[in-house]
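re: ur question from earlier - yeah i can do the single chain one, its not a big deal. heres the input i used so u can compare w yours
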Amino acid sequence: MAPKQDTTADAYKRPMAPPWLSQVWYVMELRIGIVPIPIFVILLGLIGYFLTGDKFPNEISMSIALLCIGGFACGEIGKRLPVFRHIGAAAIFATFIPSYLAFNKLLPEIIQKQVVDFTKSTNFLYLFITCIIVGSILSMDRNVLVKGFIKIFVPLALGSIAAGIVGTLVGTLLGLGAWHTFYFIVIPIMAGGVGEGAIPLSVGYSEILHQPQGEMFATVLPSVMLGSLTAILLSGTLNFVGKRYPHLTGEGRLQPGGADEIEAGDESHSGVIDATHVAAAGITAITFYLFGIFCQRVTGLPAPVAMLFTAVVIKLARLVPPELQAGASVVYKFFATAVTYPLLFAIGVSITPWDKLMAAFEMTNVITIMATVVTLMTVGFFVGRMLNMYPIESAIVNACHSGQGGTGDVAILTAANRMSLMPFAQISTRIGGAITVTLTLIALSQFGH
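and the output i got, formated as C-alpha cells:
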C-alpha cells in the first residue's frame, strides 16, 4: 500500500527530521480510505475494549468512528479487487457487505443498533446530499449550469420512454406478462428509489388494485434494488471506458465549453480560502435544505428538489460572492472525500434489506431489469452526444433515474467517480421519479385494471 500523495506540497513543507521520525510519518501516510493505518488499528482496539465493557459509548464520536472503520474498510476491499475495482466494486462492497452482515446478525448487536439509530435519528443522508448539491452548484460554471439543466431533460425523457418499451417487451418474451413486467418491474426501476418511489407507488397500487400495501411494496422493492445495483455496475464500467477513450468524457463535466469549478473572470477570487468561508458555505447549504423542507410542507414539492432549484436560482442571479463559492467547493470536496463510504456503510446496515435484494436475482427478472437499465443508459449516451454533451456523463445521469433514490445516486456517482454530477442526478432521480410515479398511477387507474 503506497502512501497518499501530498497534494499540498507547495503550501506545506515537511521539516527535516531524524530517520526514525521520517519512518513514523511514512507509516502515518499509509491509509485505509482517509484513516491512517495506525489510527485504524487503535480505533479497532478501542472499539473492541468498549464491546467487552459494561457500557458502550452511545455518542456521536463513537458513531462516526464505527462508520469510518466499516465504510472505508469495505471500500478498500472493493478498490483492491482485480477487474471489479474498475466497475464500482468499492461502492458496492461498502453498501452490500454491511447489509449482509446486518441481515445475518454477524455484527455485534450494540454496534448494529447504534449505526441504525444514528442513521435514522440524524438523517445524515440528506445532510450529505445537501452539501454535495449546494457545494457543486455554487462552485459550478454558470454557463454550464444553464445549458446543462435544460439539455438533460431530453436524454432523460427519451431514455425513459425507450427503457419502458424495451423492458416490457423483454419481460413479455420471457413469460412474465406485459402487465406485470411494466407495472412491477420496469416502472419501479425508474420511480425514484424507495422512499420517493417504491412506497408511494405501492400505496397507489394498493388503492387502485385493492391489494394490501405491504404485498405491493414487497413486490416492487426487489426491482428497485437490483435496478440500482445494475446502474452502479454499468456506471463503474463507464468510468473505466472513459479512461480508455477520454474523448467520450468530461471527467465529471456534463458538456464541453466550461469547467465545473469556480468561474474565471469576474467571479474569480484570489487569496487563501479561510475557515470562515467554508463554515459560511456549510450553514448556507443547511439553510437551503431547511427552506426546502418549508417548501415541501407548504407546496408538497420534495425538499431536495426545492433546495436544488433554490441553489440554482441563487447561482444564476450571481448573488453568491466568489469567496463563498470557493468555500462551497471545499464543503463539496470534503463530503465527497470523507463522508461517502461511511454513509454507504450506514445505508447498508440500516436501510438495505439483504433478503429483498436477493429476491430479485431470479433470471427472468435479472434479464428484464438489465435490459431496462442498459436501454436507459444507452439512449442517454447517444442522445447526449447528439446534443453536444459528454456521452458518458449523460449516460451516468440517466443511470441515476434507475437508482435507489438519494442512496442510489451516491453509490452510482461514487462508482463512476463523478460526484460533481449530483445536481443533475437529483433532477434525474427526484423529478424523473415523481413524473414516472404520477403518470403510472394515472394510467393504471384509467386503463390498467
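Residues 19-122 form one domain. not sure if urs matches, ping me
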